[in-house]
Amino acid sequence: MATATELKRLQMLIWVLIFGGLLALVLGLSVRRFEAPLGWVLMTGGAVLAGVGAALILLRAKMGPASPQNPPTKE
Fold this sequence. Notes:
Layout: H1 4-31, H2 36-63
């Protein structure tokens, strides 16, 4: 089982990857009109980051709750 701190860090990473990826994807869509190669790179990278974030959600779901030996701490 994971500690509460590890779960908190994983959840923060998940949301950064998802929202950062979606932001890059949308930015790539707007840049694609003027610089097609750069737009495609941004769109592809953003989609990959958002996909990794979604995959980490599945990993987090399988991890279960924090272990009782290590209660959540305030950070």
